[in-house]
Amino acid sequence: MPPYTKGLHALADGVSAWLLPDGSWGWSNAGFIAGDGEGMLVDTLFDLALTREMLDGLEPLTRSAPIRHLVNTHANGDHCYGNQLVPPDTHIYAGPHFNEELHAFAPGVYAELTAAQTDPEVAAYLREAFGPFSHDGIQLRGATVTVENHLTVEVGGRRVDLLDLGPAHTAGDVIAWVPDSRVLFAGDLLFIQGTPVMWAGPAHSWSAACDRMIALEPETVVPGHGPVTDVSGIREVQDYLRFIGRYAAESHAAGQPWTEAAHRVDLGPFAALDGSERVVANLYSEYRHLEPSTPVMPLDQLVTEMAKWRTRSPAR
Known about the structure:
Layout: E1 7-12, E2 15-19, E3 30-34, E4 39-42, H1 48-62, E5 67-71, E6 91-94, H2 98-102, H3 109-116, H4 120-130, E7 145-146, E8 150-155, E9 158-164, E10 174-178, E11 183-191, H5 203-215, E12 220-225, H6 231-253, H7 258-264, H8 279-290, H9 299-312
Parallel strand pairs: 4-5, 5-6, 6-7, 11-12
Antiparallel strand pairs: 1-2, 2-3, 3-4, 8-9, 9-10, 10-11
Helix pairs in contact: 3-4, 4-9, 5-6, 6-8, 7-8
């Protein structure tokens, strides 16, 4: 596997990853697939500067294989806020809920959330998480082609399979599979060395998505966040998801509200993963499926609750 260092890494003939350590909030990975005379970009990045840097880094590849296709694996900004920088005639592929989710959470909300925070510890957490990024000038650009279940795209004579495996991380999570090189771009269905965050769920649906990725028998897997991995990385994420599903079901059956379950959780071996506070969002999302009457919590409030868990909870 390539080293987990910033920038462009060749994975196979004509298939590359652009990695952004350390894989925490906003620091995401992307990919590029070169065909004969055209290429496919898998995701853009969290702001315009990062995306421009990536496009400049890809220039030796895009000279002979210009970007004609873009896959957005999902609608979180760290995978699509640079869309405006790809050529205007680019075909943009995404899942069926992408455009709706893209416009549900405006780029400026991160700065607004931090500025409005009166708790100094929570404000510090938000600055650490989102302060490195600038969302000035971002113009949201949605998908032009909807991926429903499965879509095969020919990229300069090269086959790329797009599969919609959501709901899981979000309502629609698309993966890009390059069968001739056995490389899989998994988007945020995979967080490697970090805690997955489940905005949609349920956990069993995400676990089923892991089974489908494993069934492809990939040799190289590019996660949305973290170092490049293989099937073992998919199984590690699946272990965490099964833990969340079991713990939420047991806590719900015991009559515990999700907030209490989040306060009491013993993460065991998963406590060492970066971003352990995401258990708050994961239990909230799982409870929403177990108990649909669970009050809806806006995303900005949920992020704040994760920050509070991180700053106010005992070491775990």
